[in-house]
Design brief:
Elements (H helix, E strand, L loop, with lengths): L1 H12 L13 H4 L2 H9 L4 H16 L5 H28 L9 H14 L6 H21 L20 H15 L4 H18 L9 H34 L5 H33 L23 H24 L1 H20 L7 H29 L3 H15 L9 H19 L14 H7 L1
Helix pairs in contact: 1-4, 1-7, 4-5, 5-7, 8-10, 10-12, 11-15, 11-16, 12-13, 12-15, 13-14, 14-15, 14-16
Length: 454
């Protein structure tokens, strides 16, 4: 946990603040050619920290010789270089102006004193990188004394047949790609679509702020990224992938849609009834009655493109990872671990240059983990019951669509209420229609069979 927590700190650090609040740039430095280059391109130093985070994920799960040396050179050294360059950037661009009467030695001592004075005002990017390095250093010390070992493994894992060992190694590679370099595909696409035109024409392209780009970009980014991923893993897993996307029957698709829309419809109904009760108790005759149609709006049709992105995710997480994880770790533990990997897959995008406060960061991190674990159980139940990832993709896609355009007016804590209801749904499903931990997958269950069982 020391190592994983430290790596997560490095993952989220790149999107936090890297310039102290209230600290201004020195005008005479910015006007210079070298100062201008540092101001414009110096932020690329944060990519050293991104590399160290990805290397941390890699070292976590891959065996190899000299693990202490690998941790120091692949994880700690790049992160230290990154924060060193970012700190030097701050000192150079905001350092105090020096007088022509000062000698070289006094100028240097002035700079050192200035650097010491701002050490305790460094923003959250430095703080979380330092915290991550301290946690990783604690793990390295335990490893040096033989208390901890690498790679990380879970106890009581079920032995797999020898013919499945190759598939498990492919899955390990897939996990590393998902939580590590997979996120760089989005950065590369952004550079190709926006960065290159900006470099040639010195201004953002005209389509940069268009509505259609904002709607299509997440979907296209996901499709391209998963297309690249399929090129590397298709040969070894094509039979599993083909089997996971077979048609499960219309009833099961309707069941999955009912899960997602039913929860949001319940939220809107309760919201409408509570607003109407409040109107009847306090505002009767003064204001018009709450209108029912304002609580049941139709989502933006463009958002339904998110169903394609959800299908790609479900093929990987429920079609590939869940099957192997349940084989190796059991039903509930396997679903839980899939949820953790799924959450880690979103960390990079969640914290990419959003500048949250410490409290907001912890809240967002906790919510992401809780949401992915809860949905992992519901979507996993759908996949195991129907033998296909299509119902899970429908439920997942509609969850995203309705989350981005709520049926009714938004209210504080709406996201937590929605995920809480999904948690209740997960409990009900596994309590009344459980899936055996061993044995072949259960037959498909549609709406009619659930009604009969009830």
């Amino acid at each position: 946990m020391f190592l994983l927590a430290g790596v997560v700190c490095l993952v989220v650090a790149h999107g936090l603040g890297w310039w102290p609040t209230g600290l201004s740039h020195a005008s005479e430095v910015r006007s210079g050619r070298f100062g201008g280059l540092i101001e414009r391109f110096g932020f690329f130093s944060v990519y050293f920290i991104i590399f160290s985070a990805m290397a941390g994920y890699y070292v976590c799960f891959w065996p190899g010789k000299h693990p202490v040396r690998r941790m120091l050179w692949l994880v700690c050294a790049p992160a230290l270089i990154g924060i060193g360059l970012m700190f030097s950037r701050i000192i150079y661009l905001s350092g105090p102006a020096s007088s022509v009467l000062e000698s070289g030695g006094s100028t240097l001592s002035h700079r050192v004193a200035w650097a010491k004075s701002i050490l305790w005002t460094l923003p959250s990017g430095f703080q979380f990188t330092t915290l991550g390095l301290l946690l990783i250093a604690a793990f390295i010390s335990r490893m040096a004394f033989g208390i901890s070992t690498l790679p990380i493994s879970l106890s009581q894992e079920r032995a797999l047949p020898s013919e499945d060992s190759g598939a498990w190694h492919r899955l390990q590679s897939l996990i590393f790609v998902l939580v590590g370099p997979f996120s760089l595909v989005g950065l590369l696409l952004s550079f190709l679509v926006i960065g290159i035109p900006f470099m040639f024409f010195s201004r953002p392209p005209s389509y940069f702020q268009s509505d259609w780009l904002g709607r299509l970009a997440p979907v296209l980014e996901t499709l391209v990224a998963y297309g690249v991923l399929a090129c590397f893993f298709w040969r070894g897993e094509k039979q599993v992938i083909k089997a996971s996307i077979r048609w499960p029957g219309a009833k099961n698709i309707l069941l999955a849609g009912a899960f997602a829309t039913g929860i949001d419809a319940l939220i809107s109904t309760v919201q409408y009834l509570s607003e109407r009760a409040q109107w009847a108790a306090h505002n009767f005759g003064q204001f018009g009655t709450p209108r029912l149609e304002t609580y049941f709006g139709f989502p933006d049709p463009w958002l339904f493109l998110l169903l394609l992105a959800a299908l790609c995710e479900e093929v990987v997480f429920r079609g590939l990872l869940q099957r192997r994880f349940i084989q190796r770790y059991g039903l509930y533990r396997g679903m839980f671990l899939v949820g953790i990997v799924w959450a880690a897959y979103h960390f990079f995008a969640d914290f990419s240059f959003v500048r949250p406060s410490h409290v907001e960061l912890i809240e967002k991190l906790s919510f992401r983990i809780f949401m992915c674990v809860v949905l992992s159980f519901v979507l996993g139940w759908l996949t195991l019951r129907t033998g296909s990832v299509l119902p899970a993709a429908v439920a997942h896609g509609l969850y995203n669509v309705l989350g981005k355009s709520s049926l009714g007016p938004p209210f504080p804590g709406e996201a937590f209420v929605r995920v809480g209801l999904w948690a209740v749904l997960a409990y009900v499903l596994f309590r009344y229609w459980p899936i055996p931990e061993t044995g072949p997958p259960q037959p498909a269950v549609g709406l009619a069979s659930l009604e009969n069982a009830a």
